[in-house]
User: What shape does this take?
Amino acid sequence: MAIDGEARAGAAVVGTSLLAPRYLVTTLGAVSLVFLAAFEQLAVTTVMVTVTTELDGRSWYSVAFSIALASSVIGTVLGGLAADRRGPGAPLLAAVGVFGLGLLLAGLAPDIGTFVAARLLQGIGGGALTVTLYVLVAEVFDPVDRPRVFGAFAAAWVLPALIGPLLAGAVADTVGWRWVFLGVIAVAAGATALLLPALRTHGRRSEVAEREPDSGRRLALAVVVAASVVAIDLGGQAEDVLGALVAGLGVLVTLLALRPLLPVGTLRAARGLPAVIAMRGLMAAGFFLAEIYVPYLLQTRYDAKPWLAGLALTVGTIGWASGSQVQGRLGARLPDTTAFRVGTALVLVGVAGQLAIAALHVGPWAVPLLWVAGGAGMGLAYPRVSTAVLAASAEDERGRNSAAATMGDTVSSATWIALGGLAFTAIGGLGSDAAFPAAFGLATLAAAGATLVARRTA
Assistant: This one.
């Protein structure tokens, strides 16, 4: 196989340091962009309660999350198609521009409608940024050096995960939540400037490639999926029978549009690869749906400061990093299926624990104690999904199946977050003691589904 042969050839070659002159500015720019994307994702979760409260839009809480996730699917498809045809240069700059415009609009938003529109732009820009950055890595770095680049990207998530929620909460408490968005723009511009030499040298194709035959169909399906997920959330805002019908139709259309983008049998969790992708989607949905309501619960029910509520997310991240380290050290001694079963069980413990806390009014001290288990489960199982997908894919299907796993993960998370917001609002929102248990209950349902599907991944 070409990839394996390339890896064997690279193993015999001493790699070039990522900080060597030929790589230095590209490494710094690329890692900085990944760092900023990671920081923004975690920081937004911490300050969203403050944002929606000040903009008089608490009923839009889940929409602000799901619309960014859903629109990132459009950005991923657009960025991938553009980078394949013309090279990563122009698409990457466009992605950063759209992402930056979203940050600017969010920081200056006078009302919740403008803020939600800004989140849509952030999603499109962020999705395109990720895929075009990966293409740039393939263009600039030698094959033997690429694994270390992606390792640096993974490391770039660690520091934001540890300090992002705490820092964002402190910024919101001192200079205001708007600077969580506005403060990132200048740094993003500086990181992009570092990439300009690489984009001038490697950012263009010598000849523009022909458009893929099914590219228009893929983009159309991505748009339909994103619109359907948003419809689920918006249907929940109506709080009447028509709203429920719109939300139900959104779920149906999402499933129908997503089905052709996934391997056959994924939606019914057929054994093997389809079950692996379905399990990842359910596991991510349960974890991320619960994650956005953890700081919401702490700040509204227990009157915790944003920075203190953010610490709960930091604890979960520490659990994730620890679980990831454990599975990495065990290597082949820990079979993928075992990692999936143990990991999904731990996620279920963490998510169901939040349900119990919300339903029984347990003290806030219990939140991080149980959330660390959920993070550990994600760290144990999540990295093994990529390994399992590649192992179960033919050589000419690896890229498509890897993209399907990412897309399934994103759409599943966005859909379940939208449904969680619908349940939270329908129950009565903050005016009802049952609202938080309803949201965490849905997250628990998704996590429980992941534990069952994990048994079909062998």
